[in-house]
Amino acid sequence: MTTPADPAAHRISDLPDGVDLASTLAEDDARQLIAALAVHYGWAYVLWDRANATTVLREDLDIDDEEVTDEEWQRVIRTPAWDEIAEVARRGVDINEVIPDALVEAGLQCWRCSRRLTAPPSVTGRLCQTHRVGPHGQPATVDPATEGLFWLVGRALYYAAPRATDNAPSRDGALVDFAELDPIATAQALDAHARLDAITTVTTGEPAGPDPSTGWTCVCGNTAGTLPFRPCDAAGQPVDAASPQSWLCPACGRIIDPTGVIVARTDRDER
To answer: Which residues make beta-bridge pairs with 265?
Structure first.
């Protein structure tokens, strides 16, 4: 009496429940299956297989029609050297910090301080609130379409796109020429200008005497009557009160010019 063959003997083992693949699955088909799964799930992978071994053999021997037979392939995959391939690749990824770079480039962490970001780059520009500033520390806002940064220099709007090679936020900006923008970009630039104008100018009231800062209310809420604004230079360093270039808000570190425009910010951390 013939005993029926066990169907499981012809299936690939160690697969998840509900997944069934024949052990006769051709090598090329298996490779294509893995590639399709990698695309579907966003896996980054490199597969070393018999084709790689064949290529190396042909290159070493300078013979184009050399092949690695089934029996030879089984010998190759049982070698200590073949066992090391995956670990060597992992070490290369770790040493070159490829995955941390990917997290930053995707906007999961601040580009400058690695602080965790939960909003998308269209909101953060890949920067935390502390580091989302212009080249002189002035407040910046993000263009949701390009994920680049807008900031004001005086009343003029500047813009810098992210670096194309790695999405790095850039402060190498240029003056926005509204005449060159299409209607959608114009609307976005005008919105950015309005938002920045609201946070880059202190509220000016009637000053008490020749010092204009005595009538100011900073965007952080500080007033001259709470923590007086201090005469400073462009870097925020104290200067002679008789002829200041700017004033420093001691509550938040913003540097304000005589007209009430916030022109920079010191390294004070408000996080």
So the answer is: 254
pLDDT in tens, 171-211: 899 999 999 999 999 999 999 988 887 677 777 777 766 77
Taking only the tens place, the pLDDT of each residue in 62-110 is: 999 999 999 999 999 999 999 999 999 999 999 999 999 999 999 999 9
d(CA 268, CA 180): 37
**Secondary structure in 3-state letters for 53-116:** HHHHHHHHHCCCCCCCCHHHHHHHHCCHHHHHHHHHHHHHHHHCCHHHHHHHHCCCECCCCCCE
Q: Collapse the DSSP code of 262 into the 3-class scheme (helix H, G, I; strand E, B; otherwise coil) and give the result.
A: strand
The closest alpha carbon to 254, from 240, 236, 231, belongs to 236
Q: What is the pLDDT of residues 12-27, one digit of tens each?
A: 777 888 888 777 888 8
Query: Burial of 241 by CB count in 10 Å (0-12 exposed, 13-18 middle, 19+ buried)?
Result: exposed
SS3 256: strand
pTM of the model: 0.67
**Secondary structure of residue 142 in the 3-state scheme:** strand
What is d(CA 78, CA 236) in angstroms, rounded to the nearest whole number? 67
Give pairs for 123-132: CB < 8 Å, separation 24+.
125/149, 125/162, 125/169, 126/162, 126/167, 126/168, 126/169, 127/169, 128/271, 129/270, 129/271, 130/269, 130/270, 130/271
- Please measure the distance between the N-terminal and C-terminal CA atoms of the chain and give it in whole angstroms: 80
**How is 179-227 classified by DSSP, letter by letter?**
GGS-HHHHHHHHHHHHHHHHHSBPEE---SSS-GGGGEE-TTS-BTTTS
Q: Which residues have CB under 8 Å from 27's CB, separation 6+?
A: 49, 50
